[in-house]
Amino acid sequence: MLRLRRLLVFTVFAVCAVTALSFWALQRSGADARVTLDPPPRSEAKLETLSTGITPAVNITRNADAEWLAQAAAQTGIPARALRAYVAAAGAANQSSPGCGIGWNTVAAVGFVESHHGSYGGGSLDSAGQASGPIVGPSLDGNGFAAIADTDAGALDGDARWDRAVGPMQFIPSTWEIAGRDGNGDGAADPFNIDDAALSTASYLCAHGRDLTSACGWTDAIYSYNQSDAYLVQVRDQAPAYAGTTGAIG
């Protein structure tokens, strides 16, 4: 009788162990099945020419050539002020992380998906790159979105209960606290300014030594920004469209 009971206990234990192992394997299988897409062709801008004979003492991020900027803005439909910020952001990120290889068209594709380059809700960017009105996403209260309790006392998003993504590149306040960069040199990192937001996005995508010229590196970068297959595909569709109209370098 004692042996029978031991056998029964062992059998129950074995069944539970196998069930748990199978559940873990299924979870791992789902995680490993994440979509991986080839990186889009990388687009490069024509940059303004430095004065003849001048060699800068430090690396500087050059602005896009004015004629190229106007033509590319017309070709892509990207507002010139946003495009200028994307070009500068990619250039600065590649200087800081030479192995990243991010193209401005990837930064622009994120900007398009997030806020249509700061025009969401009828808004626009002024000459300083500032959004004409607060670009604030829906409340992250768990209703159709992740539940993220307030982290900034409503300072950026106006919501003291739940966090909301803010600015033309839609940063969550807690992420902005870590990743926010000053892209225009005014001494402050403002998520509602396209220069600051674009540089923060490019730097965020290039973080952790990612190589955005590789499929795994590019996919991982976009997933780090938004863990959604649909989002990944949207960005991947838009980035080569921009490269196709302005020229790709690989």
**Poorly predicted runs of 5 or more residues:** 7-33, 54-60
The helical percent reads 40-55%
Strand content: under 5%
What Rg, in angstroms, do the CA atoms define?
23 Å
Instruction: List the quaternary state of the chains.
Output: single chain
The count of strands amounts to: 0
SS-based class: mainly alpha
How would a crystallographer describe the biggest sheet?
Answer: none
Overall mean pLDDT? 85
- SSE pattern, N- to C-terminal: HHHHHHHH
Spatial gap, N to C terminus: 74 Å
Helical run tally: 8
The coarse silhouette is: globular
Describe the structure.
This protein is mainly α. Helices cover 48% and strands 0% of the residues. α3 packs across α4 and α3 packs parallel to α6. The longest helix has 31 residues.
Summarize the structure.
By secondary structure, this protein is mostly helical.
Fold blueprint:
Elements: H1 2-32, H2 66-76, H3 80-96, H4 104-115, H5 173-179, H6 194-206, H7 215-225, H8 229-246
Features:
mainly alpha; 250 residues; 48% helix
